[in-house]
Design goal:
Layout: H1 2-12, H2 29-47, H3 57-69, H4 93-102, H5 119-128, H6 132-160
Length: 169
C-alpha cells in the first residue's frame, strides 16, 4: 500500500511521508485508527494542511450501524463528523468506483476488509443487504444527530466553557 501511494504521490508531484508502527497482532481497529490519525495530525501541523479522507456514504451507514450494535448514546449516531474533511460522504462506494473506472484511475482495497476479525467487516454484509431507503434513513438519522450535537455542544460551551472534542475522528 505504501509503495502504491508513494507512486501516486510521485505521479502527481506531491510529497509523501510514511511511518510504520508495530501495534501487535492483537491490536484493535480503534488503536490502529487512533495512531493513524495521530500521525496524520502531526503531518497536518507540519504542512499546515487539513486531513482529507475518502469516506463515503456507505462508510457512514456502517459506522452508525456499528455504533447502534454497540449500544451507543446519541453522540455515536453523529458519526464521521469532525475536523477531518470528508468530501465524498454524499456518494456511495459504487459511484466512486464507477467514476474511477471511467477515468481509468487505480485504487487499492484495504486487505483487512476481507477479514471477519473486525466488527465492521462482519456488519458490512448486513449493511449491504439494507434497502436504499433504509440506508437513507440511517444517513438522515446521522445528519439529524450531527445538528443536535452541535446545538448541545454550543449550549454546553456557553454554560460551562469549552470542553473536550468528543468527535475527534
Amino acid at each position: 500500500d505504501a509503495l502504491f501511494v508513494s507512486g501516486l504521490a510521485e505521479q502527481y508531484g506531491l510529497p509523501f511521508e510514511m511511518r510504520r508502527e508495530e501495534l501487535g497482532s492483537n491490536a484493535s481497529e480503534d488503536l490502529a485508527r487512533t495512531r493513524r490519525y495521530d500521525f496524520l495530525r502531526l503531518l497536518g501541523e507540519k504542512h499546515r494542511a487539513q486531513i482529507i479522507t475518502a469516506h463515503h456514504a456507505d462508510d457512514a451507514v456502517e459506522t452508525v450501524a456499528i455504533n447502534l450494535k454497540r449500544g451507543t448514546g446519541w453522540r455515536g449516531l453523529a458519526a464521521l463528523d469532525s475536523d477531518i474533511v470528508r468530501p465524498l460522504l454524499h456518494l456511495h462506494k459504487h459511484e466512486i468506483k464507477d467514476y474511477a473506472k471511467r477515468r481509468q484511475l487505480k485504487w487499492r482495497e484495504d486487505s483487512t476488509n476481507q477479514s471477519d476479525t473486525y466488527l465492521r467487516n462482519r456488519l458490512r454484509k448486513l449493511v449491504t443487504s439494507l434497502s436504499e431507503d433504509e440506508k437513507r434513513q440511517l444517513l438522515a438519522l446521522r445528519h439529524h444527530q450531527i445538528g443536535t450535537r452541535k446545538v448541545i455542544d454550543k449550549e454546553v460551551a456557553r454554560l460551562v466553557g469549552p470542553g473536550p472534542n468528543y468527535s475527534r475522528y
